């Protein structure tokens, strides 16, 4: 395995790398050949304990496990010269913070942000010398389902609460920084597909999304102004994303304006359906159920189904795993109804239940009940039948989880 590494000093600079016995070099990335199960590499002239930057340039298609502490991740997220590793370090900080907040929420403890997280977010916002697209990706919250999968036993309510808290708390603590970066990256020229322009748009919309989490009058006005000034779909969708979870009149008005303007443009309207389905508002499921009767919704259009039902089932972790189990029943009903129209799409929806054995009760039992309900129909297509059958087979010889490992 070609394994590219770097060593980052405590001052944030890459250290020159030479193995013991080699001539001095200025190279700061070294590709090590891994040819057996265990290796030991000894670098010379390393005077302080560095932080390793591993698998630089994605030098091999492998997954790396390394027990970084938050201080080391903060250093890499701030200074690593490898863009992917810098992004990965920031994402690991987010994951660690979300898991800790989730556990505090379950125990009824006061919620607070781990100190390194707002510090790193502030540095990313201020680092105008780095690529804006990279910073936008580093600032994006990780996928909720992925974070949940890192727990030995998944309890979704705590994860969902942690995501909402972390996003809103960061926006509150760093409001001035988000507002300043949003203003600094605002477009001053007509839309361009240039990569630099695209990166600034991404960062600009990421800042707006954080500010929208505050859901106060100033944030709502900023989102509406952002929409009014948009000369491209990216910025228009960015404004909707900022107010996606809001219960305000501004949310209702903005989504209505977009639907009126773009109802005859299929790809744009797909984004509108998707935003409605991904909202964490308490009324999201009734809204999605109502939108199935929308004049522009067509169950025979796979893209439209994916943008509404698929987005709810596979990309709305908080609401799909709602406390009453209604989300599970809705998705199972939709999979059954679609099976006669598009078996492949029905099977894709049923994949939302695949990890059911890893969930705590009562979520586990509720998902299993929906899988059994689908199986009992007896007339499933081979596509849907395979997904349902394999999911239920996972229950054989499995002991229901009763506890969680510490975050």
Order of secondary-structure elements: EEEHHHHHHHHHHHHHHHHHHH
* Helical proportion, percent range: 55-70%
Q: Which sheet architecture does the biggest sheet show? A: 3 strands, antiparallel
Cα distance spanning the termini = 32 Å
Shape summary: globular
Structural class computed from helices and strand pairing: mainly alpha
Number of strands: 3
Summarize the entry for a quick read:
With 407 residues, this protein is mostly helical.
Secondary structure layout plus pairing:
Blueprint lengths: L1 E7 L21 E4 L17 E4 L15 H10 L3 H24 L9 H11 L5 H8 L4 H6 L6 H18 L1 H10 L10 H20 L2 H13 L3 H10 L6 H14 L3 H13 L5 H8 L10 H14 L1 H4 L5 H13 L4 H8 L12 H13 L6 H12 L14
Antiparallel strand pairs: 1-2, 1-3
Helix pairs in contact: 1-2, 1-3, 2-3, 2-4, 2-6, 4-8, 6-8, 7-8, 8-9, 8-10, 9-10, 10-12, 11-12, 12-13, 12-14, 16-17, 16-18, 17-19, 18-19
Structural commentary:
With 407 residues, the protein is mainly α. 56% of the residues lie in helices and 4% in strands. It contains 19 helices and 3 strands. It has helices at 70-79, 83-106, 116-126, 132-139, 144-149, 156-173, 175-184, 195-214, 217-229, 233-242, 249-262, 266-278, 284-291, 302-315, 317-320, 326-338, 343-350, 363-375, 382-393, and strands at 2-8, 30-33, 51-54. It has a 3-stranded antiparallel sheet with strand order 2-1-3, covered by helices on one side. It is globular. The two termini are 32 Å apart.
């Amino acid at each position: 395995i070609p394994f590219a590494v770097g060593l980052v000093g405590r001052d944030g600079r890459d250290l020159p790398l030479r193995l013991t016995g080699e001539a001095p070099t200025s190279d700061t990335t070294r590709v090590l050949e891994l040819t057996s199960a265990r290796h030991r590499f000894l670098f010379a002239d390393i005077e302080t304990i560095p932080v390793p930057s591993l698998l630089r340039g994605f030098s091999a298609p492998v997954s790396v496990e390394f027990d970084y502490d938050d201080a080391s991740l903060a250093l890499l997220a701030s200074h690593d010269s490898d863009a992917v590793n810098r992004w990965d370090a920031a994402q690991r900080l987010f994951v660690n913070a979300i898991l800790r907040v989730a556990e505090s929420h379950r125990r009824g403890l006061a919620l607070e942000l781990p100190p390194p997280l707002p510090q790193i977010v502030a540095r990313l916002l201020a680092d105008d010398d780095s690529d804006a697209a990279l910073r936008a990706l580093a600032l994006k919250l990780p996928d909720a389902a992925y974070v949940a999968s890192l727990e030995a036993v998944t309890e979704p309510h705590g994860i969902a609460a942690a995501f909402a808290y972390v996003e809103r708390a960061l926006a509150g603590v760093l409001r001035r920084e988000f507002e300043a970066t949003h203003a600094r990256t605002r477009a001053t020229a007509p839309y361009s597909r240039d990569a630099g322009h695209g990166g600034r748009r991404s960062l600009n919309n990421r800042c707006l999304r954080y500010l929208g989490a505050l859901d106060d009058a100033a944030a709502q006005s900023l989102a509406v102004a952002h929409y009014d000034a948009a000369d491209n779909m990216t910025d228009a969708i960015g404004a909707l994303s900022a107010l996606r979870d809001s219960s305000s009149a501004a949310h209702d008005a903005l989504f209505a304006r977009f639907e009126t303007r773009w109802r005859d443009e299929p790809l744009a309207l797909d984004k509108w359906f998707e935003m409605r389905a991904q909202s964490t508002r308490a009324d999201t499921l009734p809204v999605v159920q109502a939108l199935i009767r929308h004049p522009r919704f067509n169950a025979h259009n796979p893209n439209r189904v994916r943008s509404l039902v698929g987005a709810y089932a596979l990309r709305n972790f908080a609401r799909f795993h709602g406390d009453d189990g209604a989300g599970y029943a809705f998705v199972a009903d939709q999979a059954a109804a679609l099976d006669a129209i598009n078996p492949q799409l029905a099977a894709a929806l049923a994949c939302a239940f695949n990890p059911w054995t890893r969930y705590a009760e009562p979520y586990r039992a509720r998902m299993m009940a929906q899988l059994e309900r689908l199986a009992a129909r007896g007339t499933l297509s081979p596509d849907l039948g395979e997904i349902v059958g394999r999911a239920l087979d996972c229950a054989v010889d499995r002991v229901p989880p009763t506890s969680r490992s510490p975050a």
